Amino acid sequence: MAGPGDGGRVALVEDHQLFAESLELALSLRGHDVVRVLPQEVTYLGTLLERLKKVSPQLVLLDLDLAGLGDSTALIGPLSAAGIHVVVVTGSADEARWGRCLAAGARTVLPKSSSLAEIMGVVRRVLTGFPVMTKETREALVARWSDRAADEGDTLDRLEKLTPRERVVLGHLMAGRAVAEIAAVEMLSPATVRTQVKSVLAKLEVSSQLAAVGAAHRVGWGAGETDQRKGA
């Protein structure tokens, strides 16, 4: 039975079927008009955004990682601008990502380990105009994202300093190849490759190949085709 203050249209974007069904049932029992918008039925986030706008929800419960579509953060800003509340429900424990969602306009971020009662409580508070996160918590999480974004910007700047040959070498390292393998593929001496690897580490300001690969992965950097044979 719906209680006082319940109700309102809620759109549910969640690609884990059992979790989605549990949320849908809990929301329906509290008097909400629930619309399931299935991410697996679309190819692009833009299409998903249009479907969400079409059903005109008051609130969207949004999974942060959608199979086939990837990170859904790009949906938060347009939905918020359209006057739709967004509550992110995610399996990610990365607080910098949470801060990114909040900076984009999400009302709050909830871990999927939250109980259904906790999630329903947040939905009710959002729809009835009550705060769901303290200013201090929000600011701390957004600051985590800002710090990471600045760090990633620095990493991208350092990656831009790599020569075409060093980019190829880093691409090989990201593919898990050792110096001897890179030398064989690139038809270079191992000593030459080791020199190029040292240059990559110096320009990225890291002390190991593992750290270089990790930095490149964190910013989503791609070396392009490693069959390019440009000189340094």
UniProtKB/TrEMBL annotation:
Q: Name one GO molecular function term.
A: DNA binding
Which Gene3D superfamilies does this chain map to? 3.40.50.2300, Winged helix-like DNA-binding domain superfamily/Winged helix DNA-binding domain
Keywords, A to Z? DNA-binding, Phosphoprotein, Transcription, Transcription regulation
Where's the Response regulatory domain? Answer: 9-127
Indicate yes or no for the key word Transcription regulation.
yes
List 4-aspartylphosphate occurrences by residue: 63
Q: Which PROSITE patterns is this protein grouped with?
A: HTH_LUXR_2, RESPONSE_REGULATORY
Q: Give the CDD domains listed for this entry.
A: LuxR_C_like
The record's Gene Ontology biological-process terms are: phosphorelay signal transduction system; regulation of DNA-templated transcription
Superkingdom of source: Bacteria
Enumerate the spans annotated as HTH luxR-type domain: 155-220
Q: Does the keyword Transcription apply?
A: yes
Pfam families noted in UniProt: GerE (PF00196), Response_reg (PF00072)
This chain belongs to which protein, by name? Response regulator transcription factor
Q: What is the lineage of its organism?
A: Bacteria, Bacillati, Actinomycetota, Actinomycetes, Propionibacteriales
